[in-house]
Amino acid sequence: MALTAGNHQTTSPVEPVSQGSLGTLVQNAGMSLDGDQLRQLAMYRDLLFTSNQTTNLTAVRDPAGIERRLILESLRLVAPLRKLPGIDTSSRRSLIDVGTGGGLPGLVLAIACPEFSVFLLDATGKKVAFLDRVVQSLSLANATTIHARAEEIGHQPRYRNAFDVVSARAVATLPALLELGLPLLRTGGHLLLPKGTAIDDELAAGHRAAAILGGEIVSADLLPDAGSTIETRLVIARKRSPTPAAYPRRTGIPSKSPLGVDVPGNGPGRRGRDPS
Q1: Distance CA 120, CA 118 (A)
Q2: What pLDDT digit, counting tens, does each position of 19-58 carry?
Q3: What are the distances in angstroms from CA 53 to CA 56, 63, 178, 261?
Q4: How far is Cα 249 from Cα 132, in angstroms, rounded to an integer?
Q5: Domains in the chain with CATH codes
Q6: pTM of the full predicted structure?
Q7: Concatenated DSSP letters for 168-211?
């Protein structure tokens, strides 16, 4: 079933960093955005900065940091997103950002990639309310918020097997992200999971978890720096067959008892735990 984005389903003024600083950052990174997109990113930056003073949306507290550490890092995903197999930029595709928080990377991707219907999923009501305000202020017709948990919507027919791409940024370990994300993908869809560089143990567990869930990790390469000082490995996983109906497990279990991880006492060769 095709999903089309749009609308929600379920301090004192600050002196903003100039829009020009964002334009310079984007240009130096070798990216191409038009004036409207730059204005939307600048508005988002200012709304995030202001709202973060009263609602915990991000640990990054200054506008310049929001530009470099949050917006630029999200924009680094645009090129690999558009290069995914089966992604045709001339037709509408769907992406869900799991645990989006203040809208990262999903809201930035909605601005930079208007050919995608982007769904912003978060379990915290205050964060979803902020995202609703941003979507309305920026007139983002291709963005929709969802106030729910991935463990819940992964079993709902409307969302299970529904998306072309799942993204998630720093919300859980790799095995947990695979368990939350793969059920949401159509067969042949992809997960985009930016990670740090020291992830060898996570990758080993991730390969085992992916096999249980009907997926496979296809790459975990360093992203081109694009003017960033942060080293990022982008884990890309593909859904090759339907995820067993038992997954995702109930709320909290994917993180507390991740698939693919050695469990003491299970004996050699036993990995993970039974669904619960």
Answers
A1: 7
A2: 678 888 888 888 899 999 999 999 999 999 999 999 999 9
A3: 7, 12, 32, 38
A4: 28
A5: 75-241 (3.40.50.150)
A6: 0.89
A7: E-SSS-HHHHHHHHGGGEEEEEEEEEEE-S--HHHHHHHHHHHH
